[in-house]
Amino acid sequence: MIEPVAVVLNQTALVKALERVNVVALAVTEEREAGRFTVFLHGPAGQWAHGVAMRRVAAIPGVFGVEEEPGVPTILRVTVAAVDRGETAA
């Protein structure tokens, strides 16, 4: 049996969650594939160094995965539970 996901994030909910964990993002864009976002970090804030931002994002409930864009540590690819575009996030 597949367990239901407790937290489903849309773009707005992800931005708010980033703020709660003190990740300074310049922008968060939604990819065509549902449940995939690109987070552009504020480089001068230094939060990308040593994987700090990756760990903070990975700790957000509803986030399944975080990958650094190869060669660009200020861009993170974030995977969350997919939500239909017409639904509101929990």
UniProtKB/TrEMBL annotation:
It comes from Kineosporia babensis. This is Uncharacterized protein. It comes from the Bacteria.
